[in-house]
Amino acid sequence: MIPSHTGGASAVPYRSKSDGLGLWKEQLETQWKGRRDARVRLLGVVSAGLFVLWLFASRIVNVRNRLPSCDALHQPGRLLVNLTSPLHTHWRPFAESQCPPLPKYLPALWQLTHGVERSFPMYQSSTFSKEYRQVAAEPLPPHLLASSPSTIDPIPFLRKRRRHPPTVLVIGDSVDRNGLVHFCQLFRRDVTISHYSDITKLPPGPYPADLTKGHGPKHEGWDQRGLMHRCEIPFVDGSGTAMRVINGFHYGMDALDEFNTPDHTDWHAPGRIENRIDELIVPAIEQLGGTDKVDVVQLHSGMWDLALFGMQDDKTRWSLTVPLTPEQLAWWQERMLHAIYHVRQRFPRARLVFRKLHRTDDAVAGTQYITNCASTSLGTCRRKSLARKDCPSSTLGTSSRATSSSRRRCTHSSSLAASPMRTTWSTSCVSRSRAGRAGVEAGCGTRELGERGEEVGRRVVFERCISLSLHSIKPRGPIERIREWLALAFQSRDERLKVARPALSSSSPRSLLLSRWSVPF
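The structure assignment produced for this chain is given below.
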């Protein structure tokens, strides 16, 4: 008897081979579809990543093609002064194969301001004094006078427009003020003199033809030399402002208003540099867009400080030809460090550059308590001080011959320092006073000179003390274009300019007070 298919226990459903294959195929298609979606998503992510990488790489290549591989002004080199053709005076690095010189911007500036049809000015070398011929280079080869075949634009900053014009603030003395005037003369622009509190308030004109030789009468109690000087450079087409340079005047590191005397008719309160920055310079900068819009701050102090030391020593009847004491150098170092810190606090986003001490020629030597034996000790102290600050520097100087002769005169005249209290290079280097110890620890005493039995003059010691302060400087950021044009303004007007290369070091041990923020240009 055959059992019934409808009765009893439930039967297992029957599936044919074709049904099994269909189910397996359906599962396989589902898995394939999921993997395909994942592959599509992965391909999209990879494509987007490659696109971003391509954009980043192309931008790096463009930046490398646009900017020079090195800054010629930071390299050891020589200033080739051309007296017969001043516009061809330029700085050339020693290793030109590794760092080529800058484009010939001075001829380009001449053609921009005077027209391409005007020929470059030429002079006879015999018309210049012996001092100028000493600092001049040998006649340049003809190929250096020819037009440069380089395709690099020598004046790119006069073409590129920005939301706010690059701004350089120069805080210093009359040399810095005259540098701004010369810079403006390069571009055939007029300097604007205004009050700090209201930059629209101008002294009545007309201004003298050459502001480096004289200013107008006092205006509202201010000697015009101490007012704010401003130079605004237009773009190539003559519109807008491509660059702005501002000068703020101060009286050195004097903290007690000691120059507030009847014979200093140009003095105007406030006298302390920190107060002048807060009460005069910062309010003026705020009217021009704010302190964050300042790209570079160039700071200098030196000649007023030497005059202060000389004035103090003259009152106490000390000789002006003996070296500065460790106490004086330690005081100056402390004041300078505080001034640099103060500038950093007020202009936190600006690059700070310190200008080294310039030299006075024989016509100025001996006036206003300043002699040729009065500044090299401060130079030594400056180098040691600025070693603590990430602060590059530039130099205005004379020829090596003039420097050597000054050192010889200083060495000879400083033999007058017979008093144990004034023999800076011997017993006073180990003074037990706090200021004396600070001076020796700072390197401003430079004891090794005393061990060799040599004595140097006030200027020699001052200059060396300033210069040693720069020994651990590290340059920061590609902002050199502004500095180039500011330095080159001095080059075109004074053939004795020398731009020093900041000494490089792998570390800057005491730079906590200064930020390393820099503004690219």
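Interim note for the steering committee: The beta strands are 77-80, 90-93, 167-172, 192-194, 228-233, 243-249, 296-299, 351-355, 393-396, 497-498. Residues 155-214+221-498 form one domain.
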